[in-house]
Design goal:
Length: 406
């Protein structure tokens, strides 16, 4: 691979990506364009601009992508009720394809021949960034410094930073207690104090969510409105996708909802332990399940549930832009045509629970399920033939097995 002349770097403004910026300039003698995405991580991004300017970035992109992130990535994923390994709401994984998309687009805009990221060679993010980039531009070069350089320890990184006059925050000179990734959907905490899964995570890990034990002692009721599988309102007030998730994060955080302690299987082969905080997403998943209960046909719903693990795995492994994910998405989106209505939820001490749901598109028929007089809506004698037909193969099996028993 020839040395790139111009690189677009996914830049947070933190120590690692600042070192990468300088390393690219030294190692390759190339121009570096920085790209910083506001995905709702809750950090002030102007310091990143000033730092990139100080370090000689040739161009600086800082973009607010919160609405696009929720509308075009998070909401389609939630239509599938996607959970990786039955528990993880994919908060980190779903952000990577959007970042990669903009890296590739900016590279085309500025005439760069490569992109770069700060993911390590042990994790999933390197795979997610790069698979997405290659799917969008098969000719793009990707520079992954963590797989190339010899700065393999915190002390080596700080030594490099000091040598090249890269500002270092005081708390970066010691060992960070854990690593954090955040966006509007979740926060992820990994490493250091969390590496032993036999030890309970300390309370100071939590950044967005009140401990359930400390949450309010009073119930809070909310109503979420849906149209075609996407949340569109809270308590009757129409809101944009990012505004909805922001509000649900506030409610979930207040009531201790959405804490997950998970040992997961990384795509690269190892297991890792993480603490995930997904307050708004946990409420949204419960509500979406609630509205599907009355608007989604059983055959469609069961088929959708059967493909969900595969869909979630594709996102986790970095295949958002693959044809198979897009094919599954088309099926999922078709299932959501009538997933419209309102769900009422009760929030209390770490739990979001559906307590009511209603819709003009409802398939629920009280006339058919009532324990009272059904006025002829359902002929109970029909069940006899239904049972006999379904029992036929079981009867034949039982008769055969009886003949050959002992």
């Amino acid at each position: 691979m020839s040395h790139p002349k111009k690189v677009v770097l996914a830049y947070s403004g933190g120590l690692d990506t600042s070192i990468i910026l300088k390393w690219l300039q030294i190692e390759y003698g190339c121009e570096v364009v920085t790209f910083t995405a506001d995905l709702g991580q809750g950090e002030e991004l102007e310091p990143a601009r000033k730092k990139a300017e100080m370090m000689g970035a040739s161009e600086i992109y800082i973009e607010d992508l919160r609405e696009e992130f929720i509308r075009d990535f998070v909401f389609p994923m939630f239509r599938a009720n996607a959970l990786y390994e039955g528990l993880y709401l994919l908060g980190t994984a779903i952000a990577r394809p959007l970042i990669s998309k903009r890296l590739v687009e900016i590279a085309a805009e500025v005439g760069a021949d490569a992109i770069s990221h700060g993911a390590t060679g042990k994790g999933n993010d390197q795979v997610r960034f790069e698979l997405s980039a290659y799917a969008l531009n098969p000719e793009i070069q990707v520079v992954a410094p963590w797989r190339e350089w010899d700065l393999g320890s915190r002390s080596r990184l700080i030594e490099f930073a000091e040598k090249h006059q890269i500002p270092i925050a005081k708390d970066k000179r010691g060992e960070a207690p854990f690593s954090v990734d955040a966006n509007l959907l979740h926060t992820s905490s990994e490493g250091k104090v969390l590496e032993n899964p036999a030890e309970e995570a300390p309370d100071h890990i939590l950044q967005r969510i009140t401990r359930p034990e400390d949450a309010p002692d009073t119930v809070e009721m909310i109503e979420i409105g849906f149209e075609r599988g996407d949340a569109v309102s809270i308590d009757g007030v129409a809101m944009s996708p990012a505004t909805i998730l922001t509000r649900l994060n506030e409610l979930g955080g207040k009531h201790g909802i959405g804490i997950l302690d998970l040992v997961e299987n990384r795509f690269v082969g190892m297991k890792s332990r993480g603490i995930y905080e997904t307050p708004g997403g946990t409420i949204l998943l419960e509500a979406h399940r609630g509205i599907e209960q009355i608007t989604l046909d059983s055959g469609a719903g069961h088929l959708k549930d059967s493909i969900m693990p595969r869909y979630a795995e594709l996102i986790y492994n970095g295949f958002w832009f693959s044809p198979e994910r897009e094919m599954l998405q088309a099926l999922i989106d078709k299932s959501q045509e009538h997933v419209t209505g309102t769900v009422r939820l009760k929030l209390y001490k770490g739990v979001a629970r559906t307590v009511a749901r209603w819709s003009e598109h409802s398939l629920y028929s009280e006339a058919h399920v009532t324990f009272e007089e059904d006025m002829g809506a359902y002929d109970q004698t029909d069940a006899q033939g239904f049972i006999q037909l379904n029992a036929l193969r079981l009867k034949l099996l039982a008769a055969r097995n009886r003949r050959f028993k002992s």
